[in-house]
Amino acid sequence: MTSGTHRVKTAGGYGAAVLALVLGGGILTAPSAAASAQNSIQFKNDALYFVDTCYEWQGPAGIEKKNYCHNAKAVQATWKAHFPEEATGATVKVTFAGYTGGPPKTVTVDDVSKDSCFQLKGTWPNYAEVLRVNC
User: Fold this and answer.
1) pLDDT tens, residue by residue, 73-96
2) How far is CA 80 from CA 5, 12, 104, 118, in A?
3) Beta 40-47 vs 116-123: how paired, if at all?
């Protein structure tokens, strides 16, 4: 008789543990990074080119509707793109007008919980560089 009671208590203990895991599962999983509209991607153009930056936001379905570009930024210009709140990352295509040294440059931003800053360097026609710098 005691072995049957022991099995019921053990099964009940396992059931309670499973229920706690199911109901409290959020405690065991890491929170996803959330962007803040106050966080941004910033560029400073120190290149001797006009520059376009096109932002492709990563995140839930529909976020691609928020993609956009900044166009024809001149030397010494500084500009920002603010993260949409639901963004989990971004890919930025940086195009140097008249650059003949290869395809546009691409930068990836995976940490949306802070600002990301880049400095653009280059001289026409075949030197262009995107440097990640401290904000």
Assistant:
1) 999 999 999 999 999 999 999 999
2) 67, 57, 19, 10
3) parallel
